[in-house]
Task: inverse folding
């Protein structure tokens, strides 16, 4: 059912385009009795008696859609059974609807991560799962998100980056910066302990001669005036034009064989070749910067801006990291 799975992926995209996940306490949780009643109705509807093929699948989709109107751990657990199934369509639908279980993100997220580990070769499922954990703002999927940020499939990279931005987990920021060539480490100072002086405490290292627009020029002849600066700008513009042309050429070659919609982050159809692995870092940069803005509230344009922000806000970052540690523990406890 290749066509059906493509439609499911597009359906996942529609959910992804919805506003950011609401806070857990804004979702009305059902009682145990209400959950049991919803499950009884679901099991009848899910059987889809007398139906076959796509009609049967759509009936089961309808049953899941009704089920998630009831927010309860028992509901998430029921979907958790479906998300582990070998049926590609059922598990994709189930993971999409687990993303709707915002009242119990710990329980729903736990099932999603377990299924991601089991079905790690199913690209469409993984994209839907990344959207689901992002929509839940589930904090226990950090390792899986970082792994997929470094996946050879370009579309999966973009989905992982977007998911990190939706979750807003500041602990994922170093992984995003690493994609830009920026290494982040704690500044331990002379004492060997992480510094608490002022707002410092974070140190960023940028690979020599790198910026995500592809150009960083150093030109210094010692001549008085602004001649050197103008020459550096001229060289930079020429190199940027070359880089852009090269990036567009690579994108054009990969677009014919890669996943449809990958260049814009859409769900698209399945891959028909290996082209999605050859996309450029320049194409990822806008997604990374958007994710960083969601995490920090800041709009960055240059690597030096990020370095300065890290140095000035080291104490704030550590406080946010601790806050997300506590939130993750609370989600796990709730599960």
Result:
């Amino acid at each position: 059912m290749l066509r059906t799975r493509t439609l499911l992926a597009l359906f996942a995209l529609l959910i992804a385009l919805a506003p950011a996940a609401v806070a857990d306490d804004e979702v009305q949780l059902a009682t145990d009795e209400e959950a049991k009643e919803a499950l009884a109705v679901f099991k009848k509807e899910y059987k889809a008696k007398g139906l076959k093929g796509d009609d049967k699948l759509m009936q089961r989709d309808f049953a899941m859609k009704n089920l998630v109107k009831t927010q309860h751990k028992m509901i998430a657990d029921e979907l958790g059974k479906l998300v582990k199934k070998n049926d590609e369509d059922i598990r994709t639908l189930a993971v999409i609807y687990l993303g709707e279980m915002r009242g119990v993100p710990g329980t729903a997220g736990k099932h999603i991560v377990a299924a991601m580990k089991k079905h790690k070769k199913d690209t469409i499922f993984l994209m839907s799962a990344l959207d689901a954990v992002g929509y839940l703002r589930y904090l226990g999927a950090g390792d899986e998100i970082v792994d997929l940020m470094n996946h050879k499939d370009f579309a999966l990279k973009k989905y992982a980056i977007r998911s990190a931005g939706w979750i807003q987990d500041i602990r994922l920021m170093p992984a995003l910066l690493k994609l830009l060539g920026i290494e982040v480490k704690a500044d331990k100072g002379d004492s060997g302990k992480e510094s608490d002086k002022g707002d410092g405490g974070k140190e960023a290292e940028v690979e020599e001669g790198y910026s995500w627009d592809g150009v960083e020029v150093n030109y210094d002849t010692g001549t008085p005036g602004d001649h050197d600066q103008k020459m550096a700008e001229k060289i930079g513009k020429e190199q940027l034009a070359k880089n852009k042309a090269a990036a567009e050429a690579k994108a054009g070659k990969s677009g014919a064989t890669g996943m449809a919609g990958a260049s814009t982050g859409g769900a698209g159809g399945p891959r028909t070749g290996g082209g999605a692995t050859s996309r450029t870092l320049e194409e990822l940069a806008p997604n990374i910067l958007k994710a960083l803005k969601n995490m920090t509230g800041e709009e960055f344009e240059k690597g030096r801006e990020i370095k300065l922000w890290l140095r000035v806000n080291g104490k704030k970052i550590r406080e946010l990291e601790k806050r997300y540690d506590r939130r993750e523990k609370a989600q796990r406890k709730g599960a």
About this structure: The CA atoms of residues 129 and 194 lie 36 Å apart.
